[in-house]
Amino acid sequence: AGRAIHPRETHTMHHRFQRPLHRRFVAVAAAITFAATAAACGGGDDEDATAPDPAATAEQDTTEPDTTEPETTEQDTAEPDTPDTTTPEAPASDPLAPQPLAERASLRVGLAAKVEVFAPILLADALGEFEKENIEVEIFNTLPSDVLVLLSQGQADVSVFAVDAGIFNAVNNGVDITWVSEILDVPADSNEGFLVSTELLGDDDPADFDFSKLDGATIAVPRAGLASGQTYDLITALAKGGLTIDDVELLPLANADQVAALGSGAAQAINAEVDPFATSIIESGDGVLVQPLLDDIATGGYFMRSGLVEDNPEVARAFMRALIRTSEQYLQPGYHDDAETVAAIAEAIGAPPESIANSPEKLFHWPIPEGSFETLQDMFMDLGQLAYTDPIDPSTVVDTSIVDGLIDE
Asked: What is the distance between the alpha carbons of residues 336 and 358, in angstroms, rounded to a whole number?
């Protein structure tokens, strides 16, 4: 299913920095929901994943993605059915058709957790899509701050994490990584984004909320605080009310604690809340969505060690081809209605199938919106979150050539 990216409109952020941004509109057959990449870590096989001292990349301060999943119950031990992994014969012109490498490649992939956000990797491994490219993949569990070191030292090849201030500081300190794609997109009916308490909403229509009401409010934010890429959403929301970060109090918390803070009145708003937490807030009546997660820029992505991209681009491309093919075959909108796909995901992440089927779907997306790196770097620099003053050239970090041509834009 191709995605059409329409012309971008330009707008300006009304904070201490001003930069033209581009809004991206994505046409999708049906939209369900987006889980932010910055969700909490856990589980997984961490064998052989011990990292060198992360102090080698001082100033990283990288947040691990908050990939917290709903609490699961004991699952049926019966072996689930898995989707048919036979790849239909594709036209030679199909860019996603398997193109086995002449020589077998082995790649190490470090993930913070086995959760549905990483379904393209987990299913591509479980369903043999990497094998069709003649790639052997080892998936191991590690913290994003540790995998940065591993990527830089050639002990890991691929990872997925949030793009926060720590990434920029790490790159400035010599961590050599390449940002090759985005992770997720925001569907039209998302419950995720900037939420305010029903008390603060008052008689306002959520679609026409008076953002000036946030003046003096306490706003729960991701644990990274201003170092989080989601600060972009916060600044945008405040600007709608003629406010800046100096006009509010920030309360850095984990997702579950943010929900409790809004319910108890300790916070009057939550910046960039993600599911299942956003939906639980709305269903409880404690809060409402007044600004969906923004899709102007990417705040997370797939990263590779630069040596892989530069020296073996055909291997890097084969890896991404397997991911995108898996997404196109098994993870299109409505995939939670397919029992075999749900069973395969549940087995891959170690969760009951019903917990998958009853949770919001993810909307997987690959192209990095133009200007993402520059916009985030400028924002973090303006907020004093970077340990350098001379901007990093985005072309030394972002390389879209690995996925170019694999998807319809």
From this structure: 8
Q: Tell me the pLDDT tens digit for each residue of 364-378.
A: 999 999 999 999 999
Helix residue spans in 88-179 (DSSP H): 119-126, 129-132, 144-152, 165-172
- pTM of the entire predicted model: 0.77
In contact, 106 and 73? CB cutoff 8 Å: no
Q: Which two tokens stand for residue 386?
A: 């970077």
Scanning the structure block, which residue is given the tokens 């549940």? Answer: 346
The secondary structure element, H or E, covering residue 269 is: strand 269-273
Residue 161: strand pairing partners:
301
User: Distance (Å, rounded) from C-alpha 409 to C-alpha 405?
Assistant: 9
CA-based R_g, the chain, Å = 21
Residues 6+ apart with CB under 8 A from 374: 19, 391, 394
List the beta bridge partners of residue 269. Answer: 196, 219
Overall size of the chain counted in residues: 409
Angle subtended by helix axes 231-239 and 372-382, to nearest 10: 80
β-pair partners for 194: 291
Residues 15 and 244 sit within 8 Å (Cβ to Cβ): yes
- Say how many C-beta atoms besides its own lie within 10 A of residue 137's C-beta: 20
Q: Which of 119, 157, 121 is nearest to 315 (CA)?
A: 157
Predicted confidence (pLDDT) per residue in 129-176, tens digit:
999 999 999 999 988 789 898 999 999 999 999 999 999 999 999 999
Burial 76-110 (b: 16+ CB within 10 A, else e): eeeeeeebebeeeeeeeeeebebeeeeeebebbbb
Cα–Cα dist 90/401, whole Å? 23
* Three-class secondary structure of residue 162 per DSSP: strand
Residues contacting residue 35 through CB under 8 Å, at least 6 positions apart = 116, 117, 184, 192, 274, 275, 360, 362
Strand partners, 179: 303, 398
Q: State how beta strands 105-111 and 158-162 pair.
A: parallel
